Amino acid sequence: MGYSIKRITQVADCDVLLTWAAREKADLDFELMSEDRLTDKFETTSVEVEAILQGVLAELLALRVAVVMLPEGKGKREMSVRIKKLEHKQFLLENRKLTYGLLALLQKELDIQRIENEIKEVDTFVAELTAHKATL
After folding, report:
1. d(CA 28, CA 36)
2. Exposure pattern of 3-33 as b/e (b: 16+ CB <10 Å)?
3. What is the pLDDT along the chain (136 residues), one digit of tens a residue?
4. Is 125 within 8 Å of 25 (Cβ atoms)?
5. How far apart are CA 127 and CA 123, in angstroms?
6. CA atoms within 13 A on the CB side of 42
7. CA 86, CA 67: separation in Å to the nearest integer?
8. Is this model's pTM higher than 0.70 or not?
């Protein structure tokens, strides 16, 4: 994008804009660092959640097969309770997967790309403004 930098006629105006741009860049750098850390956390968490979920699903499958073979009684009731607890755990893990899973990771990666593009644009602005300031 072309900026209207050539319309600036005072060095003081350039200094004000350079100070503003430096603050913008510092804010963007901090935001980028925060997003990078969150993305690292999302990558780790998404793998962990998926592994745990697969274990829960396998255990549920085995228990559901076993519970139908048991005679009525205490053992069958206890296994049914265990199945209900695992179904609840499955529900929680699937919700966590939505929050920290692959979809959330991709959203964070998009956020990082957006911030990196903004930083490049601020750098371009500063370079053009600095070059113009040198001509004043």
Report:
1. 12
2. eebeebeeeeebeebeeebeebbeebeebbe
3. 688 999 999 999 999 999 999 999 999 999 999 999 988 888 888 888 889 999 999 999 999 999 999 999 999 999 999 999 999 999 999 988 888 777 788 888 999 999 999 999 999 999 999 999 999 8
4. no
5. 6
6. 19
7. 14
8. no
